[in-house]
Write a structure and sequence with these properties.
This protein has about 90 residues and is mainly alpha-helical. Helix content is about 35%, strand content about 0%. The termini are far apart. The chain has one domain. The longest helix has 15 residues.
């Protein structure tokens, strides 16, 4: 299959992060772009949802520490079900 070159402009930080990500998946940028283009052609559109809503920030691990309380007898049988548990 004949190949052709394309030139695209990408923010340098995004390019670096993308190259690192693709390298961790065993791909270079060319392969990743080809995968995207082929998938776009197969689906006759962009293969993911495009939204104008900002991404929700990721929750910070441990941010609810001390805000959730559980009773000491949480796993104890309920009085209402005692007759079924005998």
């Amino acid at each position: 299959m004949p190949v052709t070159n394309i030139n695209i402009r990408v923010d340098s930080e995004i390019k670096t992060k993308a190259q690192e990500l693709f390298a961790s998946m065993g791909m270079d940028m060319t392969t990743a772009i080809n995968v995207f283009l082929r998938k776009t052609i197969l689906q006759k559109g962009i293969p993911f949802n495009v939204t104008t809503e900002p991404e929700k920030p990721m929750p910070i691990p441990g941010c609810l520490k001390g805000k959730i309380w559980m009773a000491d007898d949480f796993n104890a049988p309920l009085e209402d079900f005692k007759e079924y548990m005998e």
